[in-house]
Amino acid sequence: MDLSFPILILSTVTTFGLFTILLGEDNPWFAFAENTYVGVAIGLSVVLNTSQYLIQNVYTKTSTNLGANWPLVISMVLGLLMLTRISTKYSYISRIPIAVITGTGVAVTTRAIIFSTILQNVAATIKPLLNVSDPMTLFTSIMVLVLVLTMLSYFFYTVEHKGALKTSSTIGRYGLYAAFGALFAITYMGRLGLFLGRMETLLFPASTMYISLFLFVLVLATSLLLMKKYPELRKKLTPE
Amino acid sequence: MSIFKKISTLDRKWWYLLLIIFVVVPLLNPIGLPLKVSAYTKEAYNTVDALKTGDVVLVNFDVASSGYDEVKGSISSMIPHLFTKPGVKIMFMTDQDQGYIYIQKVIAERGTLMAGKTTWPWYQLEGKQYLVDYVNLGYFPGADKAIAALANDFRGNVGNKDFYGNNIGQWLDDAGVKSAKDIDLVITIDCGGAVSYFVNYFYLQYGTPIICSMISVSAAGAITNYSAKQVVALVISTRGSAEYQYLSGYFGEALISMDAFSIVQVLLVILVIITNIAFYFSREPPKGGKP
Amino acid sequence: MSSIIKRQEFLLAIIVLCSVFIYVPYFVQVPAQVSAVESWLINTMPIISATAVWVGFYTLLRRQAVRASRRVRGWYYGLMMGIMSLVVVVLGFTVGTNHDAFTFLTNSFVIPGDATIYALLVFFLTSAAARTFKVRDIESSLLMIAAFVMFMYQAPLTEYYLPFFSQPGLWLQNNLAMAATRVFGFSAALGGIVLAIRLVLGKEMGMIGLIRRKEKE
To answer: Which residues of B touch C42 (CB under 8 A)?
Structure first.
């Protein structure tokens, strides 16, 4: 059965429904799009986590070779203890798996962070100064080192900023502002790319474009009508 | 009310409408504006091009629909380009629950069903066939914990079954994949920051080279990894995807969108200049002083 | 037994034990059994994460059921959310994720929804840029100039016809933005290490849900 046409209609309605938030007020199209999206997304997450990992990986391994994989049974028990979170009386039991995952997770993350984020970045900041190939590279490397140090000095909140520290933190602050401008532009580029991708999906091929145009006019017209002419009805039809 | 005051207090919905017009018109009527290819993308292309027979590539689809539109251009060009390399074995994996959708999407769009097969996963692309030249290892939830687990005990965590339940134990043995050390290149299509996990657990432990195609929000962090030589190449966002499409010859949506991409950014600059002029001329002069 | 489980010291002991089994094998050569415990702990984390999703699912259903029973304004939207999620879960476990019915729902709602939510940000960024990038003082001028140069560099049109923006743009991206990201990375990493130490010392028990509540007077 070819479901491409209903998928096209529903996906376009979902897209334009979410776009109606740009009109500034909540409306039934947005509420519909938001709630259907969240519902299906949560269902998808549950299905994929359970079937693709718990069943296909854990259950399959333990059922085929329990002798070699018996520790996974303990893992599964810990996972099931997590479900006690639902009960008011027994929710304290769920702290055990949370403690395991917190202790392990924080340790796994921080043990690598020391090398990858701190040491390697320190090395990457200082190494170019030692392997100089031309004056421009040396100048750039010194600039980067100065910027990193001055930006870091801006975040010393436990010491009063005066004298050399004040100068350093001021330079760092200017550097941060300029960096935020650059990062804003980089972020804008990304979001623009997402928007362009979305519009391409709505506009190509030509048949999709006509359907998109019709639904766009329908959603926009009804939203504006509800906003301008029937505000009470709009409020009644939107969730609290 | 002066024109400058009107512009500085204009309802933002009019700016939104202008943005939509300047996106839709160039998309429907591409102009063909020129495009310069950056050094990052060239390096990514050259690295994939330099793969030789016997190399094993792990392709991670850290792709969710929230970032797919930014990286779809690189997916639709880098993956087919990778598939053209003879004798290279490819393993797909994902640490995002929606990632498998995009793995299937790119292979179905660019490939064809294998002879005698009617459904997933039996597709062939650029001569490479499923369970002969490439496999889909499946979904590994847990973000950095999953990548750490794979680096620690690759075969133990992958198991002997692929995403579709087919036995891949022999395939992995034939490809020479006993542990994470045996992977020659990691390509991560990154919407969620997986590159830092691969750097932490694959590069730092085994020196595995990494190519990252990422969304723009992760670009600054990825450039940090690149400058620290932790990542060999980058394909940054839609622009990088368009460049890769141009280099590889697999033209597509990212290239088409470059006109609108340019025009909107120039529009934003003009908008900022206009609002600054309007702000300057509509300011109230300070009492008792020069304006 | 429950009194032991409720004690902070018991949970702290679990955290410390897990941390030791993760840190030590990473820095020191240890017997195979210790490495096996490290592997087991790392493999256990995704399993616990996968089961925790069910807690979220149940909480969602319960909340929407309560709203529906109280006939809160717009309760039918919540009911629709709950029904859709149940349908997806049932379909996923019965017919599988490759079935037409399952892909119909994901392709109709999740994929366009996810993409649109992030694409919407471009509008908010545009109006934010128009309002924020004003030459008021040195800081805002620097902000605006850096963004201006980056826009000119990023757009293929201006990069080609106004090539003098390429070098400054590239410098801003590869050096300034990278320096700032390094600084954020250092700060976050140091914060993470401090958090790990505080966790092991028992000063961050709020992370596992142990919050001291002030007694009502």
So the answer is: 145, 148-149, 152
